Amino acid sequence: MDGLTDMLDDAPKLGRKVPQVLQGARKVFLDHGFEGASVDDIARESGVSKATLYSYFPDKEKLFAAVIQQSCEAQVADLKVTLSAKQCPIDGLHAAARSVVRLMLSKNMIPLFRLCVAEATRFPDLGFIFYTTGPKVWRSEVAEFLRKATARGALVIAEDDFDLAAEHLTALCKTDVFYQNMFCDSFKPSKEDIDAVAQQAVETFLARFGSDHVKAAQG
């Protein structure tokens, strides 16, 4: 995976036209897939010359890695803001669940998820990039929140189990609403759908990991 690490580390962080290149590249990748996306099409969609594009991204793999990384980082930043804004651990847990549900239903993330799945066999590194910059980071953020909630007495989670507990919470948020949204373009989940999934996820999660006083309050 050394080549994959290079893709993530070498993606440019600065450059006046990098944002418009990433925006144009994202559209072309989603329209044509990774293999079908040509550098000419990406340069044209981005409104830059091929020379400018290559000055930022020496090959298509690094450009695709940057597109995924940028999209995932934006979603993770939203999750961080949501979690940091909640003082009560249980309120934070509900906010975390709603954020995870919205994340998995996001119009920005679903197309990229589909693309990575479609290209995973031919380009396995691309799927790993998505996992490394997306779900893995989301899990780490949720795990850190669960660690703090446990320290405040709201949850009972063993020291070695925070990552696993974060995976449990995420999995509880991934219900039929996610699959309908993934496979049916006509399906548009409502705020009520999202709130219901998050509420049920938290109730089930607290039944397993809630402290006694939290379980009593929930009951």
Question: Describe it for me?
Answer:
This protein is mainly alpha-helical and 219 residues long. The model is unreliable at 1-5 (pLDDT under 50). The longest helix has 25 residues, at 60-84. 77% of the residues lie in helices and 0% in strands. Helix 6 packs antiparallel against helix 9.
Short structural summary:
With 219 residues, this protein is mainly α. The chain is 77% helix and 0% strand. Helix 2 (18-36) packs across helix 7, helix 5 runs antiparallel to helix 6 and helix 8 packs parallel to helix 9.
Secondary-structure blueprint:
Elements: H1 2-10, H2 18-36, H3 39-46, H4 50-56, H5 60-84, H6 89-105, H7 110-119, H8 124-133, H9 135-151, H10 162-173, H11 176-183, H12 191-209, H13 212-218
Give, in order, the helices and strands.
HHHHHHHHHHHHH
**Number of separate helices:** 13
The parts where pLDDT drops under 50 for at least 5 residues are 1-5
Which range does the strand content fall in? under 5%
- Please estimate the helix content: over 70%
The major β-sheet equals: none
Structural class based on helices, strands and sheet pairing: mainly alpha
Number of strands: 0
Please state the CA-atom Rg, rounded to the nearest Å: 19 Å
Quote the average pLDDT.
84
Tell me the overall shape: elongated
In whole angstroms, how far apart are the ends?
48 Å
List key phrases describing it.
13 helices, disordered N terminus, mainly alpha, 219 residues
